[in-house]
Structure formats: C-alpha cells, structure tokens
What we know:
The protein is globular. Helices cover 32% and strands 40% of the residues. A hairpin with a 7-residue loop joins strand 8 (131-134) and strand 9. Helix 6 crosses helix 7. It is of the alpha+beta class. The protein has helices at 2-19, 55-59, 111-114, 117-123, 148-159, 219-230, 232-256, and strands at residues 23-28, 32-35, 42-51, 63-70, 73-84, 87-100, 103-106, 131-134, 142-143, 163-166, 170-172, 177-184, 191-201, 204-217. It has 2 domains: 23-217, Immunoglobulin-like, CATH 2.60.40.1930; 218-257, no CATH class.
Amino acid sequence: MFRLLSFVLLFVMSVSVAQAKEKLQMGLSVDVVPVGSDFAGQDIVVFGAIESADQAELYRGEYDVLIEVIGDLQEAIVRKKDRISGIWVNAAAREYRDVPSFYSLHSRNPIEDVVDPSVLSSLGIGIKYLKAKPVDRGNIEEFLTQGEFSSALRRKRIENLLFSERADSVDQISPSLFRAAVSLPPNVPIGFHTVKAHLFKDGKKLDEVTQTFEVRKVGFEEWIYNLAHEQSLLYGILCVLLAIFTGWFANVVFRKN
Length: 257
C-alpha cells in the first residue's frame, strides 16, 4: 500500500512538472494583408504571452522572445556583370533554391547577446545565419554570408527591404506579455508568410509557436495577378493586343495633330 501511494505521488509530481514547462502563446492582428494599387506597406502586430514560467525569473527579465517572419521559399538567380569592350554584360551566374522571399527578425535585445552564435547557426535564426541551396551543388546548403554570389544575394535583399533585423522591436507589456510591430514594405511578396516565435532562457530554446498570414492582391490587381499565374498564354496575348492598340491609338492622335 505504501509503495502504491509513493508511486501515485511521484506520478502526480511528474505531471505537475511537465505541465509547469514554459510555453508560448501567440496571436496576429491580421489573417490577410490586402494589396491594392495604393498599397504603401503595412504594419502588423504580433502579440503573445509566456505561460507556466517562474514569476521571479519573469520579473528579472530572464526570458527572451525572438520573432521571425518568413516568406515562401523560392528560387533566386544571382548574376555577375563584367565589362567587355566597354559594355557591361551578364557573365557568371548562380541559381539558388529555398531562399526566403521575405525575412524579418524581431527581438528585444541583439540576438547574439541572447543566444550563442553556434545555436543561432544550427537553428538558422538571423540574416547572418540564413542558408540556401545552390542548384549546382545538390542538396548542400551554404550560408548567405559565404562566397561572392551568396553574399550578393543577401546584400540585395537587404537593400530592397526584403531582409531586415530589429533588435529593439519586441516590447514587454508586462513580465509575461509581449508584442512586436512588423513592418511590411510596399514590395512585400505575395503569398503566405510564416510567423515563428521562439522562447529562450539562458541561451537555451524552450518553446516555439507558429502562425501564418497571407499577403493577397485585391481588386483589379488580383485579377491581373491570377490571370498572369493561372492563364499565362491568355495573359501574354492580352499584353500583345494592348501594346498593338496603344501604338495604333498613339499614331492616330499624333497624325491628327
């Protein structure tokens, strides 16, 4: 009987410990970001809470939340221009697979002050630690800081506001509540974007939650976009006809003048 009671007590204690493990809860302010002809970018809000955490450690600020916003993976080609006989032409090129179309990282402190670079590298968190697969190298991945072409790809994405990091953009509303404003640029890619929130303490990852939102064209832009992607032949024919009509109409106007 004593052994049975001891076993039950140990079981209840183990369940309580398991339930006390720190967890993240997260929500988004939008499910769909509509993109029309007047779209100039938009801010979305990521908010959430740290649950089952030690209250004293929460008040001491020992927990850190890193938030990633990741666009669809896509192919990307990087070309190098060379000057030949005084003319700049495309020379060597490299094609990559599985490159995020958009990447934004948000944190309360610089990420390398929160997590060891080796951990960030293994998790692929941060622009410095993003990887892609050169098509001519099979399934081998390389960091976008390695080599001339991959570094150029990373640099161009940063210049076009498609890759960004902000080390002061996660606000602690209370010891357990957090929020972050994510700025989407006017050229944000169309498609689904994944939001990942990572919970760290003492440089160790404790939990991760994921949600998605969609960037979608609306109105006439949506019709054109769907036509171009779903009926490319018809879209091409319409473009040619529009070009012919525009040229004919301009000729008529200028001839009258």
